[in-house]
Amino acid sequence: MSLVASSSYAYEDELYRAGFVGVAGADEAGRGACAGPLVAAAVILPADPGSRIVGLRDSKLLTAHQRDALFDEIRLRAVTVAVVRIEADECDLLGIQEADIQGLRRALLELDPAPDFALTDGFPVDGVGCPGLAVWKGDQVAACVAAASIMAKVSRDRIMAEYDAQFPGYGFAAHKGYATRAHQRALATLGPCAIHRMTYANVAAAAR
Prior knowledge:
This protein is of the alpha/beta class.
């Protein structure tokens, strides 16, 4: 049994009692990477206590096998799921903070049915058509945000595995575009490729 506590449904339960039926959680993956897209996801979980998903927690605290299993279960049991990607060039254009907020907003706006209330991880997000609340470490305390973190993380990992075949030599399947030592060595040898974020200092330095 895992010693890492699952995210609870406490936020959702308070909102259900207040009359909000469709409570969405939103989170992203890839903010800190220097290559590949930022991927944002939004999820509405069933309000019925008998339909709750066991084991939801921050995706970074799960093994790859656990994430894959929960990804499939969320897809199967969620009321609705949306996953969007903001490519590297748009991250450069917007700046990563704005890209993060826009990614969360786009994911929430793609949900069908639309949410009655939105919980977002870390940052407030306006323009989503419903009330919302930014929750510090939301993926560790709110089940719907944890579910969104899993959807975003698994989706992005799979994208980076595809890019590993498209851009050989960088090791994207292993480090997922983060600035590991292996990635830095590849950057120094090969220079940046089409999915690198050119505004990042380490990428810009390798392009000189």
